[in-house]
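for the writeup, i need someone to sanity check this before i put it in the appendix. the sequnce is what the collaborator sent (i think, or maybe the updated version? ugh). structure was predicted straight from it, no edits. if anything looks off just tell me and ill rerun, i have time this weekend
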Amino acid sequence: MLIVFLLFFIALLLIFSNKNTNVLYGNNRDLIKTAIVTRSPVIDKEDIKIINIVDINESRIVGFSSNGYLGVSLFEKDKNLNYVMNYYELDSHSESSFVINYDNNSKIAIVVLSNGNKATNVEVTIMNHKYNKDIPLYKPSMFIFKDDLLKKKNHLSITINFFDSLGNQLI
């Protein structure tokens, strides 16, 4: 009986001691890059260029580029005030947009990324309300669109269009 109890205790100890091995932190640029590489088999840490880091309340939104990819990572503060990765997405287009839930899933934002090669303007339409942002050429950029309309999760209508310097819509 004592052996069974010891084995049970050792098993519990192993389970709880390995609980945080999959936690990816984003407290600084190096940890953010490590978290991204851990999530993506196609990215090398040396090739990651962080476009921008934006802290909103308890959330940290990170836009990045690497070897033709654009991506976004979301980190949320835990009880120890560490930023823990809870969302990651990667795209291979020169302009990308991501709809993310932040602030512990209580709010929605649209993150728009550009590598700076083609688009000079982005138009975001949220429930028939249009927002335009100029995108600088030859420089990666990130924009975050937050709107009270995004709180309405039911039947949310979002359209995102990118335009070149001549006003032509990019596909």
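The chain has one domain: 21-170. The CA atoms of residues 68 and 103 lie 29 Å apart.
thx in advance!!
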